[in-house]
């Protein structure tokens, strides 16, 4: 043990620091980042805990009185958290954050060891440093979401496959298969991992892999559970008629070829994804690293990995506007960016004497920290429009019965349902378009017939933008409680 610590002292110190950073404010409400996605994950975990751990039928609370079955990825994170809720005697959202941090820690370990084998320890240390301080990575590695669960299994699959390609030990081959399966079960978008995995197998066996039983067994290990799960998910969604689900299992929902020819697509992806992922400094280092010379074996693996992420961008183009989808690019871009840092360290500094100037180094560190702070602060800040939701939830609990169905306005509708421990529906406000207002009124009245008892305007700033609809609410229903500029609660009774 002492030998291990001594040999890996720098890495362990770095790991301790980046984990400690993520533990700051771990008990804050799960309303930062992509709050809707966090709330969905937390709902499923809580319902598993309260309704009997049936992971085949995960449930959410925004389908009214229906069972609320909502199946996307395999709910491993949700199930682990639900079990820990049971062991800890209640629901604590920080447990969800802690499990995400644990998966992040495992991802860092795998990425460090993989990069160290591909290059050397210095490149590996810088790679995991960039990976760990990425603002986007910081936000979502401590969020109640399955993205770093996916990252853990994805990088692990590549690491164990690389070990097998070096020594041909079967145990690494089979472990890689299980990790690849879990990566795709964790996030369907992880399918692109097959490209770098194939290249590693090809480098070891060439065409011989086609005639080996274990190659086909690997494929079956990956495909059978994943296909079975997603077919089950599709069947459940169809059986319960869930048109509001974002997951309709049609490739056309994600593949929008026209986007690939739109400059706006790349601008938004750059601003909301890549800038938060790498900052301008990191992105420039990544681009430069693409042109640095590397050995052919390393080059094939890294370019296959990068090509896989490009395939992801094409096939899931419609989803790339969500920043957390850019996380798929983070490990491979961190490696290329680290290569740039090493090059500067080894070669450029010989010519650029100013790099030896301590003041210049200090200023560079300050600049990088400022750039990180510009984005990374979002990991610890709840947006202004969401800060009152925990307070609003307590008020809802006071003025309603626990079985009352709510209609909650978006944004913040699902979070309000979650924190108030109610079921109901999320409702998009119509704005001032007459036709949309008419449709919104009709939907409210239909939901009232389905059992909705209260309408909650979560953020009155948005209700103010729907003047006709607000007039309808105030004239037709009873205003139970309001805080001007924050929320309004209406009893859906004339």
Structure description:
This protein is mainly alpha-helical. It folds into two domains: 2-378, no CATH class; 385-491. It is 63% helix and 6% strand. It is built from 20 helices and five strands. The chain has helices at residues 2-7, 9-23, 35-51, 76-88, 93-118, 121-133, 135-141, 147-167, 170-186, 194-205, 213-239, 263-289, 296-315, 330-351, 358-376, 389-399, 413-420, 434-449, 460-463, 467-476; strands at 405-410, 424-428, 452-457, 478-483, 487-491. Strands 2-1-3-5-4 form a five-stranded mixed β-sheet, sandwiched between helices.
Q: How far apart are the first and last residues' alpha carbons, in Å?
A: 72 Å
Number of structurally distinct domains: 2
Residue-averaged pLDDT: 87
- Main-sheet strand order equals 2-1-3-5-4
- Secondary-structure element series: HHHHHHHHHHHHHHHHEHEHEHHEE
Shape: globular
Level of helix content? 55-70%
In DSSP terms, counting alpha (H) and pi (I) runs of 4 or more, how many helices? Answer: 20
Question: Could you give a short account of the major beta sheet?
Answer: 5 strands, mixed
- pLDDT < 50 stretches: none
Q: What proportion strand?
A: 5-15%
Structural class given helices, strands, pairing?
mainly alpha
Got a strand count? 5
Task: Work out the radius of gyration.
Answer: 25 Å
